[in-house]
Amino acid sequence: MRPPETLPGSVNEATATGLAAFKTSDGTRDTTFIHAANLGRVTAEAVSPDGSTLYVAGLFTNIDGQTRGKGAAFNLLLPNYPLLPWNPAVSGTDVRSIAFASNDSSKLYLGGSFSGVSGLPNQRFLARVDSTTGAADTTWHPTIDGPVDALLVAPGNTKLIVGGNFNNANGVAHRAITSVNVAGDGTANGPLGALVAPCGNQSCSKRSDIKTLTTDGTNVFAGAEGTGTGVFDGTFAFDPATGHQVWRDNCLGATQALAVIGGILYDGSHAHDCSAVPGGWGPLPITTGPGSGVVGGAPSWHHLMGESISTGKIQDWFPTTNAGGSTPLGPLEIGPRAMATDGVNLYVGGHFTKGQRRRAAGPDPLHQRRRAGAPDSREQRHGPTASRGQGGHRLFRRQRP
């Protein structure tokens, strides 16, 4: 890893294995946080509601040479953020998501592709654990029949929203998304309509998996990745109190990350056909070649866009990243895979090596794809725009009016 604006091979380049901290003020590395995860794969992070502890999870089995079963915690109140004894002792493949209720730092929820927690084999795919000891809460034991990719405690802290690649929750058919009661033993589902089309098993040739969840404090937003031609790949909003859908965006393009700032839902995907969505376009061709997806190169599918949180209408905000073409997927690679926000800035991470600062003057192939007569974002003064940067992370800042 290296500081912003620093070229590869610089003397300032440093090694980091799975974990790193950055200063939000300038993007430089916080050198007081130096920890390493073996296997180098951390897939989920969360800070406790009281701000005292950082929890991380993934495929790793030790941190700093100390045994940690796919989960670890760091004290954020002490110098150098020391590793804590917390160890959920997860067995199986990995932990993919962590969630807290906003009013409770004493326990957290883990979701993933695992077969046991704290040595208990009945804790599969979803578990609640103690935030101090890591021990599984055996009084809470909902049953999910497939991997969990996303978790969110809904506004009001009474429902846990669960997304992933499963077909049943507590013995009731719920494809890819469900709502589980936080109170009691967790075996009662909250209200939720059939928001994703059913599938016979986790290996269906045509299916949608829920990959990401977020909220604006009222509704919950979900993003899907579809397998198979024409399968639901977009986003939808629903009311967690009633389980009723508010709106649906049927864009095709494997949504991986969502974040809300103000009245906009920001979306990381490789959207290539939004013809069925207000403000949309499509279909777009696959393109390859040097610079694909950035100004000056061949245009590719949209990797970043914004939607109205009220209606799902696509906004005129189209910074982009390239598609990480060195992977086997090439131009089909998603690009952005994670988003976070402090309410003003949008932070984006994923499999890409280039990001667009803003549209250059002159013909804009990305703009030409959009609906005729749409205002150019060079004249817009709302929503984040991409900042300049090198390396594997990008920061998108809101413009001021």
Give the gist of this structure.
The chain is mainly β and 401 residues long.
Describe the structure.
The radius of gyration is 21 Å and the shape is globular. It starts with 41 loop residues before the first strand and ends with a strand. It is built from one helix and 24 strands. A hairpin with a 2-residue loop joins strand 3 and strand 4. The longest helix is centred in the C-terminal third of the chain and has 5 residues. The C terminus is likely disordered. It has 401 residues and is an all-beta fold.
Distance between the termini: 34 Å
Give the H and E element order. Answer: EEEEEEEEEEEEEEEEEEEEEEHEE
Determine the mean pLDDT. 82
Helix vs. strand class: mainly beta
Number of strands: 24
% residues in beta strands: 25-35%
- Strand order across the largest sheet: 14-15-16-17
Approximate helicity band = under 10%
Alpha-carbon Rg, integer: 21 Å
Largest sheet: 4 strands, antiparallel
Shape: globular
Number of helices: 1
- Flag low-confidence runs: 288-299, 357-401
